[in-house]
Automatic annotation (TrEMBL):
Membrane topology according to the record: Multi-pass membrane protein
Presence of keyword Transmembrane helix: yes
Domain ABC transmembrane type-1: 96-328
Top-level taxon: Bacteria
Keyword annotations: Cell inner membrane, Cell membrane, Membrane, Transmembrane, Transmembrane helix, Transport
Family: Belongs to the binding-protein-dependent transport system permease family. OppBC subfamily.
Entry GO MF terms: dipeptide transmembrane transporter activity
Organism (species): Paraglaciecola hydrolytica
Protein name in UniProt: Peptide ABC transporter permease
GO-annotated cellular components: plasma membrane
Pfam families reported in the protein's UniProt record: BPD_transp_1, BPD_transp_1_N
Compartments, as annotated in UniProt: Cell inner membrane; Cell membrane
Transmembrane region(s): 12-30, 102-121, 133-162, 205-224, 263-285, 305-328
Upper classification of the organism: Bacteria, Pseudomonadati, Pseudomonadota, Gammaproteobacteria, Alteromonadales
Length: 343
C-alpha cells in the first residue's frame, strides 16, 4: 500500500511540474514581448522596464525564471488580472467553486437518472425497452452540449418563460459568500427571505445542470447496462437460479451490489468530463464560473489570467483523477488499472 501511495505521489508531482512549466512558457508563446505579457506595460520608460524585468528575473535563463515562478506560485502570489486589477488567486477562488458546484449537481442528477435506466436496460436485454433506452442514449450522446443549452434557452426561457435566462442569482438578492457554493451559502446565511432566495437560485441552476448532465447520463446508462448484463450472466447468478431463487431475490441479494462495484469508480471519473462541459455551458448561461472567466480573459487578452486559470483547471483535473485512481487501487489492490468505458 505504501508503495502505491508513493508511486502516485511521484506521478502527481511530476505531472504538476510539467503543467506548471508549460504554464510558465505561455508568457513566451503569447504574441508580443514576455514583459508586456506579464505586466501589461507596453510602453514605459527605460527605468520602469528595467525594474519590471528584474522583478520577473527576465535577465536570467529559463530555468532560473521558472524556479522563481514556482516560488511565487507556492507563495500565493499569482499576479494581477489586467482587466480587473485584482489578485488572480482571489479571482480563481471566486470562480472555481461555481464550476465545481455545477459539475457536482450534474453528476448527482446523472446518477439518479442513468443508474435506474441502466439497470432497466440491462435487465430487459435485447427487448424493446432495451432498444428504446439505447436509442435515447445515442441521441443524448450525439447532441453537442452547447447546442442543447441553446435549445433549452430558446424553449424554456424565451418561449415559455419558466426559467431565468442567465446568471446564478437574481440581482434583487445578495448572499454573503461563505463557501462559494451558492446553495450552501444561502442555507448557512441569516437572510430573512431565505426560501425565496433558495427557490431563485434553484431556478437559475436547473437549465445549466440539465445541459451538462444529459451527456453524462447517457454514459452512466451505458456503463450500468453493460455491467448489469455481465453480472446477470455470471456463474454465481446462474447457480442462484438453479437453487430456486426468484429473479427479484437474485437482483436484490446479488445483482445490484455486484453490478455497482465495478461502475462506481468509472462514474466518479466522469466528473472531469462534466467540469469540461460546464466550462462551455457557463459562457452560454453567463454562469460566473472559471470557464466563463477564462473566455472573458481570452477576449481581453488578459495573459496572466489565461495561464493561471488554465493551470488551476488542469491541476484540479489531475488531482481529482489521480485521487480516484489511488482510492480504487487501495480498495481493490487486484486491479492494476481502471477499466475502460465501453459504450
Amino acid at each position: 500500500m505504501l508503495k502505491v501511495i508513493l508511486r502516485f505521489a511521484n506521478l502527481v508531482v511530476l505531472t504538476l511540474l510539467v503543467l506548471s512549466f508549460f504554464s510558465f512558457l505561455l508568457a513566451y508563446m503569447f504574441p508580443g514581448e514576455p514583459l508586456a505579457n506579464l505586466t501589461g506595460v507596453v510602453r514605459g520608460n527605460e527605468q520602469q522596464l528595467e525594474a519590471l524585468g528584474q522583478l520577473y528575473h527576465l535577465d536570467n535563463n529559463f530555468l532560473v525564471q521558472y524556479w522563481y515562478y514556482l516560488a511565487e506560485l507556492f507563495d500565493g502570489n499569482w499576479g494581477l488580472s489586467f482587466s480587473s486589477g485584482l489578485p488572480l488567486a482571489s479571482e480563481i477562488a471566486r470562480t472555481l467553486p461555481a464550476s465545481i458546484e455545477l459539475s457536482t449537481y450534474a453528476l448527482i442528477l446523472s446518477m439518479f437518472i442513468g443508474l435506474p435506466l441502466g439497470f432497466i436496460a440491462g435487465l430487459r436485454h435485447r427487448k424493446t425497452t432495451d432498444y428504446a433506452l439505447l436509442s435515447l442514449s445515442v441521441l443524448g450522446y450525439s447532441i453537442p452540449v452547447f447546442w442543447l443549452a441553446m435549445l433549452m434557452i430558446l424553449g424554456f426561457c424565451l418561449q415559455l418563460g419558466w426559467f431565468p435566462l442567465s446568471g446564478r442569482l437574481s440581482l434583487l438578492y445578495e448572499v454573503p459568500r461563505i463557501s462559494g457554493f451558492i446553495l450552501l451559502d444561502i442555507m448557512w446565511s441569516d437572510l430573512e427571505n431565505k426560501s425565496a432566495i433558495l427557490i431563485d437560485a434553484l431556478r437559475h441552476l436547473i437549465l445549466p445542470t440539465l445541459s451538462i448532465a444529459a451527456f453524462t447520463t447517457t454514459i452512466i446508462l451505458r456503463i450500468t447496462r453493460r455491467s448489469v448484463i455481465e453480472t446477470m450472466n455470471s456463474d454465481y447468478i446462474l447457480a442462484a437460479l438453479a437453487r430456486g431463487l426468484t429473479p427479484w431475490q437474485i437482483l436484490f441479494r446479488h445483482g445490484i451490489k455486484n453490478a455497482l462495484m465495478p461502475i462506481l469508480p468509472l462514474i466518479a471519473l466522469q466528473f472531469t468530463t462534466l467540469l469540461t462541459n460546464a466550462m462551455i455551458v457557463e459562457v452560454i448561461f453567463s454562469w460566473p464560473g472559471i470557464g466563463n472567466w477564462l473566455i472573458q480573459a481570452i477576449y481581453q487578452r488578459d495573459y496572466p489570467a489565461i495561464r493561471v486559470g488554465m493551470l488551476a483547471v488542469s491541476t484540479l483535473v489531475v488531482l481529482f483523477t489521480m485521487s480516484i485512481d489511488l482510492l480504487i487501487r487501495l480498495v481493490d489492490p487486484k486491479k492494476s488499472k481502471v477499466e475502460r468505458v465501453a459504450i
